[in-house]
Amino acid sequence: MSPETQAPDQLTDIRAVDRGGRARLLRWAVNCWLVFHLSAIIISPASVAPSSELIESAWTVFRPYLEFMYLNHGHHFFAPEPAASTLISYRAERADGTTVTGHIPDRTTLPRLLYHRQFMLTEHLHDAQLREVPDELLDDWVKSYAAHIRHKYGAVRVQLTGHVHSLPSREDVRNGRKLNDPENYESSDFGVFE
Q1: Which of 28, 77, 96, 115 can bridge 109 by disulfide, Cβ–Cβ 3.0-4.6 Å?
Q2: pTM of structure
Q3: Where are the domains of the chain?
Q4: Sheet containing 99-104: which strands, arranged edge to edge?
Q5: 3-class SS string, the chain
Q6: Contacts of 109 (CB under 8 A, 6+ apart)
């Protein structure tokens, strides 16, 4: 019997069964995606070195998805062993002789998201130095920071200094060393820009 010749009640039953099958398939697909997604979220921070070979293998499976969804955040800043942070201090001289000093990132920056943006910019500069990016590119990068500060404060001259803030070891902390101890900072002069 074709659907056109079936009784209306039978046709409704067939459509209900068909919808039930599609709904079940959709629920199954959503559940599979949720399991995959949650596994990826767990694997992302667990894959930061030091990690096991199993976790590193799993990372290769989940990495394309995490990068596509932009879920591969910088967990290494927080755990299991935070890396050193990078700061840039500046001294901007105006034409009238006044000076403005500060740091990038500045802890008083609001909204907090802007502070994190500044923090990531300085981190990328440090990473570029470690990866031995060509000097011309690094120079342009540093000059762009100087140009921004010069524009922001109406300065004629800007001096930039980079600081790598390493965390003290567990033993140093036990011996009383503070996180902001000057010995934890390694400074390098980026130069004066006019």
Answers
A1: 115
A2: 0.59
A3: 8-76, 83-193
A4: 99-104, 85-94, 155-165, 185-193
A5: CCCCCCCHHHHHHHHHHHHHHHHHHHHHHHHHHHHHHHHHHHHHHHCCCCCCHHHHHHHHHHHHHHHHCCCCCCHHHCCCCCCCEEEEEEEEEECCCCEEEEEECCCCCCCHHHHHHHHHHHHHHHHHHHCCCCHHHHHHHHHHHHHHHHHHHCEEEEEEEEEEECCCCHHHHHCCCCCCCHHHEEEEEEEEEC
A6: 115, 118
